[in-house]
């Protein structure tokens, strides 16, 4: 006889654990448990049968995997939480007694924990960290614009601003920016780093009103983790391109509002050369100077010499460790890719070649297009007026190779002023200008973003100051079959005169076609009228009455129209007309008949599903047709108004 299984000892009852049971098992408060779950990336689970998971109880509960809670029991941060709880009790006791010196020593020995091991556990490879960088950047850029409050410390805001500026500098240095979109929420940026697409949102720099109904305790826990992750990622990115991390900060430029220019970006090779030159330039003091120095000064001099001698060795060790870490990370990523990624083999074409085969010409074309995009504004000297957002325009322009200057009101550190003759474009958002330079284009800020999304420099005429701007389309929308795709003329890089000219030519062609059709109809009517008159004369010569002649002609017309209807009704005709009046070929008729036969063979369930799908397609097609008609009407009215303006 088989052994009986006890209830609640296997299955969902063992695999899941409620939140209250987890709190008792870990012996922590609910706030600490939430904080620990956020840091470790553990979230609630939904069992298939809640009653079985709750051991027969139907009371509402939050469930977690039992293995996850068991995993948390060995977490070092949990011990730090307990140490901090003990520290808080001691601090409260000492402060109540008024022992401030003891409280000061306790505060100096406050328990501190780091999240380095958590980052390494959650992201074994650098590619995994890049894939999860979207939310990290959104949170950091959000808190970088926050004001200081009782819940948000000034240190947190400054650290977020530093991390955001460091990441932006890397995107500038490598020219990794790909797409930009201005939305109501903020500005969306998309960059391609190490083959991974990273999209983040940057809020507009307006005065922020901190809401009171937001749980900042949870957000600050996420921010604590994301700050550590961003520091790891920035260090790795800077090390891969041989840049010193963290970059130095020019305090004078930072106080003057220089923004990203306050950071000094240096190469690791230049720092190594500087250290080597310092080491070689150190000389032994002469006997006269050595005699004049005191014993303490001699000791300090000897210690400084030893430090300078060992400086190059330390830098070499750091570079070697960075190289080994990079090699191990690359090997682990390759192993992970080999183990996890599965690519289906493409089916060969009729000629034996694969349909998705990438040729050398394709690779060369893609690399050439990418290099052209990265240097899109390399020949442009752009000046930013004081009313435009410098924090965004400077970033996107420099990421595409442009030379950017700005008004002194926007901050210090501009490489050139407004009177510079090299300036080709001045971005302004005022309808009127006090003075104008004839050698440059005055455009609105949207021209920069539309040019980046189009991948080429667009014509500046639709974006001139004071004009109504063309629609700013989202580059993140991927059109599917049957969707309406707006055909914005400004993305073709043509001038407006050419577009108007093409519209005029199309209208002239349509008018010519209408005139030709009218002439053909008139010629046919004249020929029919002549034939009818000839038959009347012949009937009159034969002595046939006019009434009999009219009756015969009406019978002939009725027979001809009946024959035309019969031929139009037969499916074997080479060309038939549909209900909408459009011509269909014989192949299309056969395809429609085959579809009808397939519908007959469907079950009721399949027919209902097919009708739903077809209804959705028809609805989408009707919307597309409505939008296209509206677009054609607007284009016609615009062309007519342009004609009138020219006349």
UniProtKB/TrEMBL annotation:
Coiled coil: 617-644
Compositional bias annotation for Basic and acidic residues: 294-304, 527-541
Sequence similarity: Belongs to the pescadillo family.
Location in or out of the cell: Nucleus, Nucleolus; Nucleus, Nucleoplasm
PANTHER family from the UniProt entry: PESCADILLO - RELATED (PTHR12221), PESCADILLO HOMOLOG (PTHR12221:SF6)
Annotated segments matching region Disordered: 285-304, 314-354, 474-584
InterPro entries associated with the record: BRCT_dom (IPR001357), BRCT_dom_sf (IPR036420), PES (IPR010613)
Entry superkingdom: Eukaryota
GO terms, molecular function: ribonucleoprotein complex binding; RNA binding
Natural source organism: Dissophora globulifera
Keyword annotations from UniProtKB, A to Z: Coiled coil, Nucleus, Ribosome biogenesis, rRNA processing
UniProt record, GO biological process: maturation of 5.8S rRNA from tricistronic rRNA transcript (SSU-rRNA, 5.8S rRNA, LSU-rRNA); maturation of LSU-rRNA from tricistronic rRNA transcript (SSU-rRNA, 5.8S rRNA, LSU-rRNA)
Gene3D superfamilies named among the record's database cross-references: BRCT domain (3.40.50.10190)
Lineage: Eukaryota, Fungi, Fungi incertae sedis, Mucoromycota, Mortierellomycotina
Protein name from the UniProt record: Pescadillo homolog
Biased composition range(s): Acidic residues: 494-526
Main location: nucleus
Listed GO CC annotations: nucleoplasm; PeBoW complex; preribosome, large subunit precursor
Subunit structure as annotated in this protein's UniProt entry: Component of the NOP7 complex, composed of ERB1, NOP7 and YTM1. Within the NOP7 complex ERB1 appears to interact directly with NOP7 and YTM1. The NOP7 complex also associates with the 66S pre-ribosome.
BRCT domain ranges (all copies): 372-465
Pfam families (UniProt xref): Pescadillo_N
Matching PROSITE patterns: BRCT
Role, per record: Component of the NOP7 complex, which is required for maturation of the 25S and 5.8S ribosomal RNAs and formation of the 60S ribosome.
Compositional bias per record (Polar residues), positions renumbered to this chain: 319-334
Ranges of biased composition (kind: Low complexity): 568-579
């Amino acid at each position: 006889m088989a052994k009986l299984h006890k209830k609640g000892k296997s299955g969902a009852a063992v695999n899941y654990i409620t939140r209250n049971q987890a709190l008792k098992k870990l012996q922590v408060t609910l706030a600490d448990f939430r904080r620990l779950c956020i840091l470790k990336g553990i979230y609630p689970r939904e069992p298939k049968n809640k009653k079985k998971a709750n051991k027969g109880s139907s009371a509402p509960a939050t469930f977690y995997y039992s293995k996850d809670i068991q995993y948390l029991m060995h977490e070092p941060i949990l011990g730090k939480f307990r140490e901090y709880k003990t520290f808080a009790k001691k601090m409260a006791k000492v402060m109540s007694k008024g022992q401030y010196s003891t409280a000061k020593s306790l505060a100096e020995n406050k328990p501190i924990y780091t999240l380095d091991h958590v980052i390494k556990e959650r992201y074994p490879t650098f590619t995994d960290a890049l894939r999860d960088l979207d939310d990290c950047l959104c949170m950091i850029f959000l808190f970088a614009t926050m004001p200081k409050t009782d819940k948000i410390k000034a240190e947190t805001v400054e650290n977020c601003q530093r991390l955001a500026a460091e990441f932006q500098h890397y995107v500038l240095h490598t020219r990794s920016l790909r797409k930009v979109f201005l939305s109501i929420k903020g500005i969306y940026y998309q960059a391609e780093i190490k083959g991974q697409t990273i999209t983040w949102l940057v809020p507009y720099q307006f005065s922020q009103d901190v809401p009171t109904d937001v749980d900042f305790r949870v957000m600050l826990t996420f921010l604590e983790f994301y700050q550590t992750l961003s520091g790891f990622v920035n260090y790795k990115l800077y090390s891969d391109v041989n840049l010193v991390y963290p970059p130095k900060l020019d305090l004078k430029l930072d106080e003057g509002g220089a923004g990203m220019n306050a950071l000094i970006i240096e190469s690791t090779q230049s720092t190594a050369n500087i250290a080597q030159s310092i080491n070689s330039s150190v000389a032994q003091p002469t006997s006269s100077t050595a005699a004049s120095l005191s014993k303490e000064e001699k000791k300090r001099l000897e210690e400084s010499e030893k430090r300078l001698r060992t400086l190059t060795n330390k830098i070499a060790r750091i570079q070697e460790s960075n190289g080994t870490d990079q090699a191990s990370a690359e090997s682990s990523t390759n192993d992970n890719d080999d183990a996890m990624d599965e690519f289906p083999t493409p089916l060969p074409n009729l000629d034996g070649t694969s349909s998705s085969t990438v040729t050398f010409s394709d690779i060369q074309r893609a690399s050439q297009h990418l290099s052209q995009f990265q240097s899109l504004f390399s020949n442009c000297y752009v000046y930013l007026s004081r009313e435009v957002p410098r924090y965004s325009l400077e970033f996107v322009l420099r990421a595409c190779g442009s030379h950017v200057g700005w008004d002194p009101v926007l901050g210090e550190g501009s490489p050139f002023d407004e009177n510079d003759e090299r300036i080709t474009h001045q971005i302004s958002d005022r309808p009127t200008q006090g003075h104008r330079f004839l050698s440059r284009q005055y455009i609105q800020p949207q021209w920069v973003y539309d040019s980046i999304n189009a991948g080429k420099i667009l014509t500046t005429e639709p974006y001139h100051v004071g004009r109504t701007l063309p629609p700013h389309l989202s580059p993140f929308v991927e059109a599917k079959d049957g969707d309406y795709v707006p055909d914005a003329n400004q993305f073709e890089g043509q001038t407006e005169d050419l577009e108007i000219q093409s519209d005029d030519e199309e209208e002239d062609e349509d008018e010519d076609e209408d005139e030709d059709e009218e002439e053909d109809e008139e010629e046919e009517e004249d020929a029919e009228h002549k034939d009818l008159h000839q038959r009347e004369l012949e009937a009159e010569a034969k002595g046939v009455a006019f009434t009999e002649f009219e009756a015969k002609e009406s019978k002939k017309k009725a027979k001809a129209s009946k024959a035309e209807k019969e031929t139009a009704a037969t499916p074997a005709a080479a060309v038939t007309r549909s209900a909408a009046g459009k011509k269909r070929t014989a192949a299309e008729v056969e395809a429609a008949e085959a579809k009808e036969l397939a519908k007959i063979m469907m079950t009721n369930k399949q027919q209902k599903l097919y009708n739903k799908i077809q209804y959705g397609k028809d609805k989408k097609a009707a919307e597309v047709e409505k939008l296209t008609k509206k677009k054609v009407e607007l284009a016609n009215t615009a062309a007519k108004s342009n004609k009138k303006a020219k006349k």
